[in-house]
Design a protein that fits this description.
By secondary structure, the chain is mainly alpha-helical. 65% of the residues lie in helices and 0% in strands. Helix 3 packs antiparallel against helix 4 and helix 5 packs across helix 8.
């Protein structure tokens, strides 16, 4: 006769092994991205190897493949870590903001300078694209899809936000929003080419860019007020 089953004789399944904590995973992921950026900046895309990134990050050679299967995916992750989040955060802000188109456009340009033009890491990525995208056109496509298209879409949204009220309306600019950000791109190229030899005063340059854009959109001439720059020149 079989003994009656009881909790004492029924073996419980072994508890699953505790997974690594999410903060630890995030920290390791960030280590890899930082190391990858340094490798891309120093070596360029073509000569950077995943094993070199792993070595710089202080992890085993095979560990990096648990996070990134190939170099292209790693480059895209670096791009998102350095730049994409800036545009995503602002797009969410603009979508939910009750601010006018003019205020949003001003804020967009301010962020363009602080987060992109004055960001040495963002400039390094653009340098890499300029030097190597002819060999690896997929890099330019990644940048176009992850950075350029969302940025242009956000500017169009800003220009159309209050179009019904007749604010900042321009069919040409809605079609070609690149015109509005072109001076910022020029500032990046200027810095890459001339560096510290012939530096731009980025703050004064930014103010001139804002005045040019706002005056043009309003169809007026003359200097913009200090309030249009988000404060006085001394406070900027």
């Amino acid at each position: 006769m079989h003994p009656p089953h009881s909790a004492a004789v029924i073996s419980s399944p072994k508890p699953p092994r505790s997974p690594r904590s999410q903060p630890w995973k995030d920290q390791r992921h960030k280590q890899i991205l930082n190391a990858a950026f340094d490798e891309f900046a120093e070596r360029g895309y073509e000569t950077t190897r995943l094993e070199d990134v792993a070595k710089r990050a202080g992890i085993a050679k095979g560990t990096i493949y648990l996070y990134f299967k190939n170099k292209e995916l790693l480059f895209r992750a670096v791009l998102r870590d350095q730049i994409t989040h800036v545009l995503r955060d602002f797009a969410e802000y603009a979508e939910n903001s009750s601010s006018s188109s003019e205020d949003l456009l001003r804020e967009f340009l301010v962020r363009q300078y602080s987060e992109l033009v004055a960001n040495a890491k963002a400039r390094s990525i653009i340098r890499l694209l300029i030097s190597e995208s002819h060999k690896f056109p997929q890099l330019a496509e990644i940048y176009y899809n992850d950075i350029v298209l969302p940025g242009l879409s956000t500017i169009r949204h800003i220009l159309e936000k209050n179009a019904g009220a007749g604010e900042l309306t321009s069919r040409e600019l809605t079609e070609f929003p690149q015109i509005l950000i072109a001076p910022g791109i020029l500032a990046v190229l200027w810095s890459l080419i001339f560096g510290d030899r012939h530096p731009l005063d980025l703050e004064t340059y930014r103010q001139a860019h804002l005045q040019f854009v706002l005056s043009g959109l309003r169809g007026r001439t003359g200097p913009a007020t200090a309030e249009e720059f988000g404060g006085s020149r001394e406070d900027s």
